[in-house]
Amino acid sequence: MNLVIKRKIFQSIIPAVIILSLLHNFINEYAVFAMWSIASITALLCAGVVFDLIFAVEFIVKSIKAAGRKEFLIYIKHKKGWIDILSSFPVLILYSVPLFCLLLKNSAEIGTLSPLPFEIMSVVITIRMPLILRSIRVVKLFGIKALHNSEMTRHHSSAAGTVAVITAAVVIMLWSGITGFSDPEGIKKRSSDYSRLLVELESAATLNNLDFRDLCENILISDHRLIRINYNNGKRYEKLSESEFSKYYNSGDYIKVSGELCSLTISVKDLKKENARLNMMFFLVLLGPGVAFMLLYSRHFSITVSDVAGALNSGFRKRDYNLMIKIRNEYKEEELYRLAQFYNDVYLPAKLRKRDFEKEGSGTPITMDAVKQFDENGS
Amino acid sequence: MVQARRYSKSELHGIKEFAGYLFEIPSIKKEPLLIGERLIINFIEKNKQELSVIFTTPGFFPDLAPAEAVELILDDIYNRVYASSLQPINSFIDNTNLSFFDRFSETGVVDDMHRRRKLHDFVLTLFKDRDVRYRMYPVIAIFRYNAVDRYISEIFNRREYIYKEITRFERINPDADLYISLIKVIILLTSVVYYKTDKISEEAVPPGSVTIPDAAAGMGCVNVYTDELIRYLTSKLPGIPAVIIRLAVKSHLPVDKLDEGDSLAKLVYIFCSMFQYYRDAEKPYRVNEPTEKSWLGIAKHNSGYAGYDRDMIDSLYLIAEDNNW
Prior knowledge:
heterodimer, A: mainly alpha, four-stranded antiparallel beta sheet, 14 helices, elongated, B: mainly alpha
């Protein structure tokens, strides 16, 4: 009894955690897109690490249980163990752990990290692996019994939905890889653009005998990416106060471009915002087919296939289940419906003829054991 | 009949609990009460010896003789079945004006209250007879599910085949409410065919204790029994015309054994067959047709075998289909 309750609690908690993790995945990107404060974004990143840990633990627990029953391979192959592992460990090891270390250290920019784990993390982010692997957790929801009672519906809509979601995931990852590694509009390009601009400004000031600071500020004042100019003589021009800067800018949100006479602090948040916008779109592209298969296709499958099979099964097995099956014109040539037609036209009439032929008799389904239990229940 | 006052409250309470427990056994609980009763009584009759030992044990009824315990159990079961089954029938008899039957009468007018009281007493007599009671399940189901009202109203709205067939009585107006009452009375009387012939007539009619359907299935002297039964009913039910009683008695017969003018008997035969095993389907699938449409759809295929009027079945099927019954 206790075990059953525990299992039921476990079975209802995991879907709730999956839904929370999917919501988190979207909010995580929205926070970057809407330029929330660094504190909020950091909290969301930590929550992501926690979710990854939870699913890693879930995979370990399920694996141990399956191994105990000598069904580990069955769990991996047929009970979505491969989704459990794919959506937990790779993202935990390749992204969450390095990111967590980074948050603890608050060290240099992500893009310029030299140690191997951080370089790998950079690649992982480029191909949007964290987003995609966290999003495919939607596939784990296909098995929820609350959505459909029919095992057949759950199985088939889950298979079709999984194919759709995983295909979309692979396509997005490939596309992100191809465009991410060859994209000229990256941080490096921005850095070189501003380096070139600084050189041009310095040359123009020298050639035209102009004050470099005036020229620099006149030209750059309208540039919304400029955060700060630090002149070599110690003077500085700031668009954001120190407190605002530390509230909204983390390492990785800006670049520093040094020239001969000054250095510029340039925001790259717009690039991150664009990336977050794409991430949100890809998240919805992954979630869309998942939800569609889970709610729409499974309902269609249930009405057109598993309900028919269930009605046939009940009619064949239960003496008092004698309801005909509705056969819609558009399906009447399909194998299952041809069987249903036979069931309606031949089997049920024969079943009722047989029942009419049998005398009611003196049979009874009551057993002496059932009657004796009255005593046990009473005492 | 057992006199309840002879037993202590705790004994009667124990009996009540035991009877209630039997109806709660899953295989009985899913059945209508009347069918459940039959299954319970089948069990008791089959296991009388063993039960008489068990009943004397402390957990059961040690202070009662086993035979007394069985009697009290059967009484309690009957009371439960009576309470759950007869209410719609009693309500019909109490609230319906049956004075239109006087138009058929050749012997004069009968006080309607008297007619209905006699009808009620007669139905109760049938219901008290255990063998007949078991056969009354379709009658009770027809009343419970309001089948006559539903179908006859539709038949009169459509005025198609069944309407033309059943409105042949020249002495009554083709009015839906009137026909609903007429058909309900016929249905109430149909179960009488399951009354053993020796209970109808004290004169020995060979081969003795049989029912009309038994006689019809076994030998050719069914007409003797039928005439005897109609004579018996006419004397028991003043104000119910012989022509109606004849229709009721004939309504257990298939179409090939009925005359052209017996359309009401054909319709009642279909109704009784439809509700013979009527159950609310447990958890039907969305792709399933409704219960009555399903039965009528199957009956189309079985009409030749079962002796239904095929045209009536077709009409009723369309009604059930249009109303999603």
